[in-house]
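QA checklist item 7 of 12: single-chain prediction sanity check.
[x] sequence parsed
[x] length recorded as 234
[x] structure emitted
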Amino acid sequence: MNKNRDIMVVIPTYNNPKTIKKVLDDVLTHNFQVIIVDDGSDTKVEDLIENKNITVLRHEKNRGKGQAILTGAKKAKELGYDFFISMDGDGQHLASEIFKLVDAKNSQNQIVIGSRNFNIENVPTISKVGRAFHNFWIKLNSGYDIKDSLTGFRLYPTSILNLNIKCKRFNFEAEVLVKHYWKYKNITDTTIECYYPTPEERVSHFDNYKDTISITLLHLKLFTQKIFLLKGLF
């Protein structure tokens, strides 16, 4: 019996035609179950992959990374999974590191964060600065001393579907951590290795201006809720 078949991997992807097949092959090499959520890509993901024995869901219009993860979570729950792994479709995450997330889980309703080792080549300075900035806010709003609040490589319980999540784009990944911690007080992290391509090869849909403002406004909103509505304090 291959225990890897009991692990569901959800890959949200939007316009990653050059990397999604490689990411999928990496995951399948380790015999994991896979759900790909095509978030309105210009070229349908199902037209790019040869393996038809996986679940491909599609948003006809781009709805945001957060909504893609929630769509994958709902399907994973329907299939009987209590947990799933999220990893990006741009090739930054390595399927071999999934074992670290699974091994770090020690209780129910727990999020395990794959904190990226940034002591490697090609990591932009702005990524390091941004991570430190958002780490500060997550700690302030939740109390959890997080190491990598921006990583998309995480183990989620499907119980995140029960949280009152409003954000559906990149800001989802901050909101889900804070609200999950408010409700369950149950987040942990483990260091994982990753791959950063050269600037010429890198494809990112994260807008350093718009998305940073959006996430910062979310931090301020959550801080207000924590102070005036006493969210997460009891």
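[x] summary fact logged: Residues 3-228 form a domain with the Spore Coat Polysaccharide Biosynthesis Protein SpsA; Chain A fold (CATH 3.90.550.10).
[ ] second reviewer sign-off
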